[in-house]
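re the bet — no i am not wrong, look at it urself. input seq straight from the record:
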Amino acid sequence: MSVYQINKGVSKPIVFKGLKAQYIAYLAIGLVVLLIGFAILYICGLSLWIILPLIVGLGSALFFSVFRLSHKFGEHGLSKHFAKRQLPECLIFRSRQVFIQLKTEHHGN
């Protein structure tokens, strides 16, 4: 007799500390950008007393905004939000010719 374990979380999204799905990647990319920015500013010779508050402030803003987006839109909500913004308000046709052509092409096959 074989005993199999059932993985009950197969279709669930990845969640890390409250962040869902793609927001984990957004946070990781933002942190890498901040690290590179810190390195560039430090190499340019800027004082640490200027760099550290700047990076900490931008990092805090990054964390708060990514967590806010994750809680507001959820797993797929942000992509749906951007897709909905690209939809036109209305379609205006000055002629019925478009529909007549569709009808003749459909019946012609």
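see?? The helical segments are 22-43, 48-73, 77-85, 97-108. told u. also Residues 19 and 25 are 10 Å apart (CA to CA). so pay up
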